[in-house]
Amino acid sequence: MKKLYQQGLSLLELMIALALGLVLVAVAVQMFISSQANLALQRSLGDLQDNGLFGLDFVAKDLRKTNLGASLAVLDSNIAQGGIILTNNNIIGSGNIRLTGFNASHLSHTAQLANTSNFKDLKSDQLTIQYKTVQNIYDDATFLRKMNNNSLTAAERQAVVGYDCEGGRIVLEDVINQVYIIQRYYVRPTTTSSTTGTNNPHLALYCDAGRYVWGDLETALAESEKDSPNSPTRSINVSLLDAGQVVIPRVDHFRVLLGVAEGEYNDSKNFRYLTFKDYLALPQDNLPTIRSIKLALVIRSQDPISKNNNKLTDTFDILDQVDQKLVGGEDHYMRQVLTQTIALRNALGEDLRPKAQQEQNAAEGATP
């Protein structure tokens, strides 16, 4: 009987098999690396969209309430209850009134606070607005009738009609009491962050909300007018003192410009954009009215991406601030400059009072 013998692979066959195997493994690894890089890129793009566009839309919705309940349907730094708080006159008009829980550092201002920007020699702006609470439960006639008849139940008075930027409830009782909401948007370092691997500090856009009651301010103003020069200063509480709530995380810079106009609203040649600082430097007896706000945010992705997948840069144009460089230089994060212009629809009226009366009312903080 003939015996059968099994022969092994030759050295050449083994080397060929190993080479083919290595090629297949290399292709699989390359595909895995490429897919991971593409996944990181898509995730970063989605993160920029979610973080930036949706966050900016949230801010814009609140900013559209600006100047609601102001003493005039126009806006400058002297209008009582003016929507953009540039001076204390925008809250109290004039009078010997002290605001507790609110000071000069809470006013809208241009680049004053340190550690608020990741760009060299820059600081972020701060925007402080106010608006009157309104109800959305009843039509105006029904609401006025219920108020005049004192027929609103306790449950109705506690019905939620909205929220401030920190998530604080605004109830129907606040509308009845003519409560004004103050919201301060500013950038500061975050206490915690899941983003690592960058030389640029972790910053975010925060919002701090406070409120005051119009009746309290009205009473304080009336009492202040009766006081003698040596009488104690009257005060109302605003309570804008806590750390605020993150509105948009991973913000490298925040810029705000005011769209102002002189003369008729439709006269485009009189329309221009100014910083808060430049606006307040204008003659206070002839201020142009504020028609809009232009915002710019530089936002960063949460996760780093491969530099080969995206043309990363450390230089950006942020509205009027051109060719600005990051403090920590280029890193492996995607960034995007988001801008939005918001027309202040509650400040698009015209001040038709005689000039002398305008100046007198502005000095007195009076409602015409």
Quick recap:
Helix content is 28%, strand content 25%.
Helix content: 25-40%
What is the 3D shape?
A: elongated
Estimate the strand proportion: 25-35%
Total number of helical segments? Answer: 8
Count of individual beta strands: 14
Q: Give the helices and strands as they follow along the chain.
A: HHEEHHEEHEEHEEEEHEEEEH
Classify the secondary structure makeup into a structural class: alpha+beta
**Lateral arrangement of strands in the main beta sheet:** 2-5-6-8
Mean pLDDT score = 82
Characterize the structure shown.
A hairpin with a 5-residue loop joins strand 3 and strand 4. The chain is α+β, with helices and mostly antiparallel strands. A four-stranded antiparallel β-sheet has the order 2-5-6-8. Strands 10-9-11-14 form a four-stranded antiparallel β-sheet. Strands 1-7 form a two-stranded parallel sheet. The protein has eight helices and 14 strands. The longest helix has about 55 residues, at about 10-65.
Record keyword descriptors for this entry.
28% helix, 368 residues, alpha+beta, 14 strands, single chain, 4-stranded antiparallel β-sheet
List the helices and strands and how they pair.
Elements: H1 11-63, H2 89-92, E1 97-100, E2 127-132, H3 140-149, H4 154-157, E3 160-163, E4 169-171, H5 172-176, E5 179-189, E6 203-213, H6 214-226, E7 234-237, E8 245-249, E9 251-261, E10 272-274, H7 276-280, E11 289-300, E12 315-318, E13 321-325, E14 335-343, H8 355-364
Parallel strand pairs: 1-7
Antiparallel strand pairs: 2-5, 3-4, 5-6, 6-8, 9-10, 9-11, 11-14, 12-13
